[in-house]
Structures are given as structure tokens and as C-alpha cells.
Write a structure and sequence with these properties.
By secondary structure, this protein is an alpha/beta fold. It has nine helices and 15 strands.
Length: about 290
């Protein structure tokens, strides 16, 4: 399969490229700069110069492509950075729509779109399937708009709603590594905020399965087999590393998301390389002990 990947040079994009190449797919990646193009070529990927927000710069490269994978986002490292949030929203809304228009014009018959579990109504310990109620957090509203654009495009598609990424290069792993260097992991209130971890390798596996399978239609949750509370996860990290575990009295804004990956397992044969983050401490803290195969 010949696959065009948007967001190919990010932490997730690099894992997706590796997964696709390892399974003998031909991969093209969008490059906004010469440095990005050089990186892609060094990884054995055909670099396509262009800008997601200007479809005319890359549409020509879609000729002969079988599928498009959109991983593009610009989530800021600091939640208060409104300028970057605005860019993220522009990428997800305008960028996704332009990509879909170009994809339709070139007759491509499959799109895989990255999304987030934060489009769901947070329900704490309640298991969330793909039909769970939606109530996007403000920072996830654009992701939901991108989902709707893809679903309404008429192009066969898979939406992958991911839990919280970890692994080398992910923001969560970078944060946990910083906390370890500071000597303490920190939760808020009782620590009952639920998270559904997913290793970057496993999200890459889900992307590949969604590209390869004709039954990959609609929405799929992507996470490991053991969603957990921050209290249990950070407690395990503290016990393993000897760091302290601290609790701030401020209640969390939301109770979190406990995703079920059942549909992904049953429909696409997903089996996580890393079944539980509680057993992947090295990966959570930035050294990839868990290898994709």
C-alpha cells in the first residue's frame, strides 16, 4: 500500500513511519521545511514539500496514493498558550478539510484520522465504548470538528480516538521524566482521575491495522488493556523509582476517561505491544524497553 502521512516527523509520526515501513508499505510524508524533508529521506520515506493549510502545495503528490493518514496537530506544551491552541484548531479544522478535498479530488479511497478520548463526556471509572456520550473539552472541540468532517466526507475512513500517549518524545513522558528529576510525582485531590494510556508504538500499530483492514470503518478507541487512575499509576512509579508521591488538594477539572479497546481488538485484531503502562515504567519515563515487532 502507498500511504501519504501528514504529521510524519512528530513523535507519533516517527513510530507510524517505522511501523508502516516494517510491514512493507511505501510511505510518503509531508514536509514543511528542508530539515523535515531531510529527516524523512533519512528514514527511507519520500518527502513531499508542502503545507497542510495550502493543499495546492501537495495535492499533486496524492496521485497513485492508496490511503491518507492524518496525524497533524499543534497541541501546545503549555495549556495557557492561546496562540498555539489557535494554530492547533486551524490545523484540525481548515487543514483537515483541505486534505479531505484534495483526497476526494484525487480519488483516494481510505483516510485514517487521529483523534482523542477528550471528545467523550468524562465519566471516571465508567467504561467508555465508541458509542459513549460526547462532550468535548474546549481544547478537544476542534478534534471533534475534524472527526465530523472526515465522517461526512463520503471517503471510507477510520477515526482513532487515542488515550494518553507515552513513549519517547511524547509530552506525558517528558513531563514524567521532569517529575522524576525533581524527585516527586504529583496527583491532585484523591488521584481518582482516570487515564487510558497508549504507547506510541501501539497507536502506530492501530494506524497500520486501520489502513490495512477493509473492516476498519468508523470510530475506534485506542489504548492499552488496563486504564488506571493517576493515583495508582504515579504510586507505582514512585514505588519503583524511589521518588515521592505528593497530592495537591485541588480537585481535578474532570474525572477522566476509562476507554475500552474491545472494538479495536475484535474488528482489527489489535494486541498491544505494551498491554499496561503499569508494567512499562521505563517507557513512561523515556527509555523504550518495550519494542514493537
Amino acid at each position: 500500500m502507498r500511504v501519504f502521512v501528514i504529521g510524519a516527523t512528530g513523535a507519533l509520526g516517527r513510530c507510524v513511519l517505522s511501523e508502516l515501513l516494517a510491514h512493507s508499505h511505501a510511505v510518503l510524508g509531508l514536509a514543511r521545511s528542508q530539515d523535515q524533508a531531510a529527516l524523512l529521506r533519512g528514514w527511507g520515506v519520500q518527502a513531499i514539500p508542502g503545507d497542510l493549510l495550502a493543499p495546492g502545495t501537495y495535492q499533486h503528490a496524492l496521485e497513485g496514493v492508496d490511503a491518507v493518514c492524518n496525524l497533524a496537530s499543534a497541541v501546545p506544551p503549555r495549556p495557557a498558550d492561546r496562540a498555539l491552541w489557535q494554530m492547533n484548531d486551524l490545523i484540525l479544522r481548515q487543514g483537515t478539510q483541505g486534505l479531505l478535498n484534495a483526497t476526494r479530488r484525487m480519488g483516494i479511497r481510505r483516510v485514517v484520522q487521529q483523534s482523542t478520548d477528550e471528545v467523550y463526556l468524562p465519566q471516571g471509572a465508567t467504561w467508555l465504548g465508541e458509542d459513549a456520550p460526547l462532550a468535548p473539552a474546549p481544547e478537544a472541540a476542534a478534534a471533534r470538528d475534524a472527526e465530523e468532517a472526515v465522517l461526512e466526507s463520503g471517503i471510507p475512513c477510520a477515526i482513532l480516538r487515542a488515550g494518553r500517549y507515552y513513549g519517547a518524545g511524547s509530552r506525558w513522558t517528558e513531563l514524567l521524566g521532569q517529575r522524576l528529576r525533581e524527585g516527586a510525582f504529583e496527583t491532585v485531590h484523591s488521584g481518582e482521575h482516570w487515564v487510558s494510556p497508549v504507547h506510541l508504538f501501539d497507536m502506530a500499530q492501530a494506524v497500520r491495522l486501520a489502513l490495512e483492514s477493509e473492516s476498519a470503518q468508523g470510530i475506534f478507541n485506542v489504548c492499552d488493556d488496563a486504564p488506571t487512575t493517576l493515583r495508582d499509576l504515579y504510586g507505582s512509579l514512585a514505588a519503583t523509582t524511589g521518588a515521592a508521591l505528593r497530592t495537591q488538594p485541588t480537585p481535578p477539572r474532570r474525572s477522566g476517561w476509562r476507554l475500552s479497546n474491545r472494538r479495536l481488538r475484535e474488528k482489527l485484531g489489535f494486541v498491544p505491544y505494551c498491554p499496561t503502562a503499569l508494567g512499562a515504567v521505563a517507557d513512561l519515563l523515556g527509555t523504550s524497553a518495550c519494542e514493537a515487532t
